[in-house]
């Protein structure tokens, strides 16, 4: 059951994988790998109650993986003090643990402590250089700190030729170049993001803003309208369109006054 569950997860069948793991625990309740995998999947799926039940049944286990998952569940539930205490214990025993440092960085970021988050995320990248999640979050930290050049540097390894292009990477890189004032590079990245998801609404929103900044009014309005009417519409696009229409009306009124 465990091997089948892993194969199902790799194929993208999360529900099938969890069902197989549940059956594995019925057959062998003490099979720790099945329990750990099921808890991890339950947390990622947002089924925090089930994850909590599974972890409480393993409360006596002295295993760093169990403590890690308890910390992750606490963080997802917003119990940041408890999560911080648990992950600190894991990192005392395994200071170079990439996943542990990433989770610690996520907890600090969630608590608004950007400098602490940066420190843990850099440790995660030392342990695992191409850790995508750590690079993404570290880029967000740099953007929040007003350091887009640092965000660009952090994301660069994920944008090298031959690297798999992920939507989140393209979006973040576009944001970093936009904050850095590099409109051409930002536009190219948002175009790639739009293509990666067949019409990504957020990318369209940013492309509309860039077009307006470049003085291409009609292109900008069209992109904003597309973003506002997409399946996952961007609320800011509606607000931007309203502002633009008001601006157009003001210009028309001023021209009429000038004629008079």
Summed up:
The protein is 76% helix and 0% strand. By secondary structure, it is mostly helical.
Topology (elements, then pairings):
Blueprint: H1 2-10, H2 14-27, H3 32-44, H4 48-56, H5 64-76, H6 80-93, H7 98-110, H8 114-127, H9 132-144, H10 148-155, H11 167-179, H12 183-196, H13 201-213, H14 217-229, H15 235-259
Helix pairs in contact: 1-2, 2-3, 3-4, 3-5, 4-5, 5-6, 5-7, 6-7, 7-8, 7-9, 8-9, 9-10, 9-11, 10-11, 11-12, 12-13, 13-14, 14-15
Describe this structure in words.
The chain is mainly alpha-helical and 260 residues long. Helices cover 76% and strands 0% of the residues. The chain contains 15 helices and no strands. The N and C termini lie far apart (82 Å).
- Strand and helix order: HHHHHHHHHHHHHHH
Mean pLDDT: 86
Instruction: Determine Rg (CA atoms, Å).
Output: 23 Å
| Distance N to C terminus | 82 Å
Low-confidence stretches: none
Count of helical stretches: 15
Strand content: under 5%
What would the principal axes of the Cα set say about the shape? globular
Strands, total number: 0
Structural class: mainly alpha
Helix content: over 70%
Largest sheet: none
């Amino acid at each position: 059951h465990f091997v089948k569950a892993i194969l199902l997860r790799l194929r993208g069948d999360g529900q099938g994988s969890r069902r197989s793991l549940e059956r594995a625990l019925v057959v062998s309740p003490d099979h720790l790998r099945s329990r750990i995998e099921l808890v991890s999947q339950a947390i990622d799926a947002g089924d925090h109650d089930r994850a909590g039940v599974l972890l409480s049944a393993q409360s006596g286990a002295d295993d760093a993986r169990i403590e890690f998952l308890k910390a992750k569940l606490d963080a997802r539930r917003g119990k940041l003090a408890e999560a911080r205490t648990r992950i600190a214990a894991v990192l005392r025993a395994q200071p170079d643990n990439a996943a542990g440092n990433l989770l610690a960085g996520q907890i600090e970021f969630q608590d608004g402590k950007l400098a602490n988050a940066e420190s843990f995320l850099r440790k995660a990248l030392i342990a695992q250089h191409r850790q995508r999640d750590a690079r993404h979050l570290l880029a967000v930290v740099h953007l929040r700190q007003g350091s887009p050049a640092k965000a660009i540097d952090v994301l660069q390894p994920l944008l090298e030729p031959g690297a798999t292009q992920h939507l989140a990477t393209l979006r973040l890189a576009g944001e970093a170049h936009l904050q850095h004032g590099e409109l051409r590079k930002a536009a190219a990245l948002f175009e790639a993001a739009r293509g990666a998801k067949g019409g990504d609404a957020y990318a369209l929103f940013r492309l509309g803003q860039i077009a307006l900044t470049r003085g291409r009014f009609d292109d900008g309005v069209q992109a904003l309208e597309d973003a506002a009417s997409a399946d996952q519409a961007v609320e800011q696009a509606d607000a931007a369109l309203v502002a633009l229409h008001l601006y157009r009306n003001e210009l028309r009124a001023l021209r009429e006054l000038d004629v008079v």
